[in-house]
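Q: Give me the 3D complex with biotin.
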Amino acid sequence: MDARALLDTLADGHTHSGAALARRLGVSRAAVWKQIETLRAAGLPVLAEGGRGYRVERPLQMLDAGAIGAALPRAVRALWPCIEVRWQLDSTSSELLRAAEDLPGATALFAEWQTAGRGRRGRGWLAPPLLGLTFSLLWRFEHGYAALAGLSLAIGVAVAETLRALGARDIALKWPNDVQHGGRKLAGILVELGGEFLGPCHAVIGIGLNLHLPRSMREAAGQPVADLAEACGDAVPARNALAAALLAALGEALEQFAHGGFAAFAERYAALDALAGREVTVEAGERRYRARAAGVDARGALRVRRGDGVVVLDSADVSVRA
Ligand code: BTN
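A: Here is the predicted complex, encoded as structure tokens.
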């Protein structure tokens, strides 16, 4: 028995005794307890209700590829011929990079539990099973890498606008593409490229979105973080519906980007830009200096005013803090 079988039962949010769980799953109580410990170690709080049994803090919805596909608006259904949900993977982005050659042009891969989620700049991405959305998209482009400048910002725009449309408040983008709520990180985006440098090429776009962050994860994050429950005043959309809303917006954004590049997103980015006009600290290798953010250029590079001049920063080389 793996933790998934246990969660199938616990997901209803009710209290289940250890004996009932063991009976239902056909295993010993010790085996049930071991899987509860595994889930807790992965960051999912499983509460012990005195002597009465175990429950999760709130009902949890498992992802279902059929339900996500069915919830896609008809007009965008054809954009996502391949939607997959896996219970456990090291990383949805690593998996798509490994399998890119054999997959359909557009593929969306979700995992309930990533054991080695990756973030930008070599960092990790921590997300407890079922308390967030972790997924990656494979998308093919006719042109080469140079045409994809600003892609990760365009993806940020699509994610941020979708969350706003679903009722999330105080949503902004911190360059290059952190989605923030109240100045704290709500979602992260990691874009990796493969294929031919001069084209055709493909992008693997990984997105991690916090839905309900337990306290332990907030402490482990090493930076101020937020979840969608805070941003939506607890009215978090069901996970399959949310996944479908994001896929619909992202499919449209990717099509639009393939035709017009970042230019089509520049104004929308400006409307979400959390740094515009603010003083920032720029770290570029060993160098560190203060400057004032002044929006992004036509390629999605950050412009900062320093002294009398304007410096243009590429996201691969620098980190910027407000
Ligand atoms: C960041 O802000 O540093 C980017 C985080 C990206 C995390 C997502 S979760 C789904 C996909 N799989 C990964 O291993 N990483 C991305």
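A quick observation: The chain has a mean pLDDT of 94.
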